Amino acid sequence: MAKTLIIATKNQGKAKELASIFSEDGIEVKTLLDYPEIPDIVEDGETFQENALKKASVIAKEFQLPVLADDSGLIVDALGGEPGVYSARYAGEGKDDQANLEKVLLELKGVPIDKRTARFHCTLALAFPTGESHFFEGDCEGIITEEPKGNGGFGYDPIFFVPEKGVTMAELEPVEKNKISHRAKAIEVLKKNQHLLKG
Protein backbone atom coordinates (compact mmCIF):
# COMPACT_ATOMS: atom_id res chain seq x y z
CA MET A 1 0.00 0.00 0.00
CA ALA A 2 1.32 3.42 -0.94
CA LYS A 3 2.34 5.75 1.81
CA THR A 4 0.42 9.03 1.97
CA LEU A 5 2.01 12.47 2.26
CA ILE A 6 0.00 15.63 2.85
CA ILE A 7 1.27 18.86 1.25
CA ALA A 8 0.14 21.78 3.41
CA THR A 9 -0.92 24.04 0.54
CA LYS A 10 -4.03 25.17 -1.31
CA ASN A 11 -1.91 26.19 -4.31
CA GLN A 12 -2.69 23.73 -7.13
CA GLY A 13 0.50 24.50 -9.09
CA LYS A 14 2.70 23.88 -6.07
CA ALA A 15 0.82 20.68 -5.23
CA LYS A 16 1.12 19.33 -8.78
CA GLU A 17 4.86 20.04 -8.85
CA LEU A 18 5.45 18.14 -5.60
CA ALA A 19 3.05 15.28 -6.41
CA SER A 20 5.01 14.41 -9.56
CA ILE A 21 8.21 14.02 -7.51
CA PHE A 22 6.72 11.54 -5.05
CA SER A 23 4.57 9.50 -7.43
CA GLU A 24 7.70 7.73 -8.73
CA ASP A 25 8.15 6.21 -5.29
CA GLY A 26 4.54 5.14 -4.92
CA ILE A 27 3.76 7.87 -2.41
CA GLU A 28 0.24 9.26 -2.68
CA VAL A 29 0.04 13.03 -2.30
CA LYS A 30 -2.92 14.90 -0.84
CA THR A 31 -3.20 18.66 -0.33
CA LEU A 32 -5.30 20.97 1.83
CA LEU A 33 -7.66 21.21 -1.16
CA ASP A 34 -8.63 17.63 -0.22
CA TYR A 35 -9.43 18.78 3.32
CA PRO A 36 -11.47 22.01 3.03
CA GLU A 37 -12.50 21.69 6.68
CA ILE A 38 -8.97 22.55 7.85
CA PRO A 39 -8.82 26.26 8.75
CA ASP A 40 -5.89 28.40 7.59
CA ILE A 41 -2.95 28.18 10.00
CA VAL A 42 -1.72 31.59 11.16
CA GLU A 43 1.90 32.10 10.07
CA ASP A 44 3.15 34.13 13.00
CA GLY A 45 6.71 32.80 13.21
CA GLU A 46 9.75 35.06 12.96
CA THR A 47 11.60 32.77 10.52
CA PHE A 48 10.77 30.76 7.42
CA GLN A 49 11.57 27.58 9.38
CA GLU A 50 9.16 28.45 12.19
CA ASN A 51 6.29 29.12 9.77
CA ALA A 52 6.89 26.04 7.63
CA LEU A 53 7.25 23.78 10.67
CA LYS A 54 4.13 25.18 12.34
CA LYS A 55 2.02 24.39 9.26
CA ALA A 56 3.53 20.93 8.82
CA SER A 57 3.52 19.79 12.47
CA VAL A 58 -0.03 20.92 13.29
CA ILE A 59 -1.48 18.99 10.33
CA ALA A 60 0.80 15.96 10.87
CA LYS A 61 -0.58 15.56 14.40
CA GLU A 62 -4.16 16.10 13.21
CA PHE A 63 -4.02 13.39 10.53
CA GLN A 64 -1.27 11.14 11.92
CA LEU A 65 0.50 11.31 8.57
CA PRO A 66 3.74 12.95 7.34
CA VAL A 67 3.18 16.51 6.11
CA LEU A 68 5.30 18.77 3.89
CA ALA A 69 4.88 22.55 4.12
CA ASP A 70 6.81 25.45 2.70
CA ASP A 71 7.38 29.06 3.60
CA SER A 72 9.08 31.33 1.15
CA GLY A 73 9.69 34.99 0.46
CA LEU A 74 11.87 37.77 -0.87
CA ILE A 75 14.97 38.93 1.03
CA VAL A 76 16.32 42.35 -0.03
CA ASP A 77 19.77 43.21 1.33
CA ALA A 78 19.33 47.00 1.21
CA LEU A 79 16.13 46.63 3.27
CA GLY A 80 17.85 44.66 6.01
CA GLY A 81 16.34 41.38 4.82
CA GLU A 82 12.79 42.66 4.39
CA PRO A 83 10.15 41.79 3.35
CA GLY A 84 11.33 38.29 4.38
CA VAL A 85 8.69 36.28 6.27
CA TYR A 86 6.24 39.14 5.68
CA SER A 87 6.56 38.94 1.88
CA ALA A 88 2.91 37.98 1.29
CA ARG A 89 1.61 40.83 3.45
CA TYR A 90 4.36 43.46 3.17
CA ALA A 91 1.92 46.23 2.22
CA GLY A 92 -0.76 45.03 4.65
CA GLU A 93 -2.88 42.02 5.52
CA GLY A 94 -4.73 42.02 2.18
CA LYS A 95 -1.98 39.96 0.50
CA ASP A 96 -2.02 42.19 -2.59
CA ASP A 97 0.87 41.26 -4.92
CA GLN A 98 0.87 44.60 -6.72
CA ALA A 99 0.84 46.67 -3.53
CA ASN A 100 3.66 44.56 -2.04
CA LEU A 101 5.78 44.98 -5.17
CA GLU A 102 5.18 48.75 -5.27
CA LYS A 103 6.17 49.09 -1.61
CA VAL A 104 9.53 47.37 -2.28
CA LEU A 105 10.19 49.70 -5.23
CA LEU A 106 9.28 52.74 -3.12
CA GLU A 107 11.56 51.65 -0.26
CA LEU A 108 14.43 51.21 -2.77
CA LYS A 109 13.93 54.54 -4.54
CA GLY A 110 17.34 56.12 -5.17
CA VAL A 111 19.27 52.96 -4.25
CA PRO A 112 21.84 52.23 -7.01
CA ILE A 113 21.49 49.01 -8.97
CA ASP A 114 24.65 47.43 -7.47
CA LYS A 115 23.09 47.79 -3.99
CA ARG A 116 19.76 46.20 -4.98
CA THR A 117 20.86 42.59 -4.45
CA ALA A 118 18.19 40.17 -3.28
CA ARG A 119 17.20 36.52 -3.19
CA PHE A 120 14.08 34.44 -3.15
CA HIS A 121 14.25 31.92 -0.30
CA CYS A 122 12.27 28.72 0.28
CA THR A 123 12.21 26.51 3.36
CA LEU A 124 10.43 23.16 3.14
CA ALA A 125 9.54 21.45 6.42
CA LEU A 126 8.75 17.74 6.58
CA ALA A 127 7.00 16.83 9.84
CA PHE A 128 5.93 13.45 11.19
CA PRO A 129 3.21 12.70 13.78
CA THR A 130 5.98 11.57 16.18
CA GLY A 131 7.34 15.13 16.31
CA GLU A 132 10.33 14.31 14.08
CA SER A 133 11.04 17.03 11.49
CA HIS A 134 13.48 17.89 8.70
CA PHE A 135 14.19 21.07 6.71
CA PHE A 136 15.23 21.56 3.07
CA GLU A 137 16.19 25.01 1.77
CA GLY A 138 16.86 26.76 -1.52
CA ASP A 139 17.75 30.27 -2.73
CA CYS A 140 17.65 32.07 -6.06
CA GLU A 141 19.92 35.14 -6.28
CA GLY A 142 18.92 38.27 -8.18
CA ILE A 143 18.66 42.05 -8.34
CA ILE A 144 15.59 44.23 -7.77
CA THR A 145 14.80 46.25 -10.90
CA GLU A 146 13.63 49.87 -10.88
CA GLU A 147 10.36 49.00 -12.61
CA PRO A 148 8.31 45.83 -13.26
CA LYS A 149 8.95 43.81 -16.43
CA GLY A 150 7.13 40.71 -17.70
CA ASN A 151 3.65 39.28 -17.31
CA GLY A 152 4.44 35.76 -16.06
CA GLY A 153 4.83 34.35 -12.60
CA PHE A 154 3.33 36.03 -9.56
CA GLY A 155 4.27 38.04 -6.48
CA TYR A 156 7.59 39.86 -6.82
CA ASP A 157 8.60 38.09 -10.08
CA PRO A 158 8.26 41.23 -12.29
CA ILE A 159 10.90 43.14 -10.27
CA PHE A 160 13.28 40.23 -9.65
CA PHE A 161 16.04 40.27 -12.30
CA VAL A 162 17.91 36.98 -12.73
CA PRO A 163 21.46 37.81 -13.93
CA GLU A 164 22.17 34.30 -15.30
CA LYS A 165 19.10 34.59 -17.56
CA GLY A 166 19.27 38.32 -18.36
CA VAL A 167 15.55 38.80 -17.67
CA THR A 168 13.16 39.13 -14.73
CA MET A 169 11.54 36.05 -13.22
CA ALA A 170 8.24 37.23 -14.77
CA GLU A 171 9.80 37.10 -18.26
CA LEU A 172 10.83 33.46 -17.95
CA GLU A 173 8.78 30.59 -19.33
CA PRO A 174 7.29 28.51 -16.45
CA VAL A 175 9.45 25.50 -17.38
CA GLU A 176 12.61 27.66 -17.17
CA LYS A 177 11.52 29.29 -13.93
CA ASN A 178 10.87 25.90 -12.33
CA LYS A 179 14.46 24.86 -13.04
CA ILE A 180 16.11 27.80 -11.25
CA SER A 181 13.62 28.96 -8.64
CA HIS A 182 14.20 28.86 -4.90
CA ARG A 183 11.45 26.25 -4.57
CA ALA A 184 13.03 24.10 -7.28
CA LYS A 185 16.34 24.19 -5.41
CA ALA A 186 14.71 23.25 -2.09
CA ILE A 187 12.89 20.41 -3.85
CA GLU A 188 16.21 19.18 -5.27
CA VAL A 189 17.54 18.85 -1.71
CA LEU A 190 14.33 17.12 -0.68
CA LYS A 191 14.58 14.65 -3.57
CA LYS A 192 17.99 13.57 -2.29
CA ASN A 193 16.35 12.73 1.04
CA GLN A 194 13.21 10.91 -0.11
CA HIS A 195 14.41 7.88 1.85
CA LEU A 196 13.01 9.65 4.92
CA LEU A 197 9.52 8.76 3.67
CA LYS A 198 10.24 5.15 2.90
CA GLY A 199 10.94 3.85 6.36
Automatic annotation (TrEMBL):
Transmembrane segments: none annotated. Pfam families: Ham1p_like. Binds 1 Mg(2+) ion per subunit. InterPro entries: dITP/XTP_pyrophosphatase, ITPase-like_fam, RdgB/HAM1. Its EC number is 3.6.1.66. Homodimer. This is dITP/XTP pyrophosphatase.
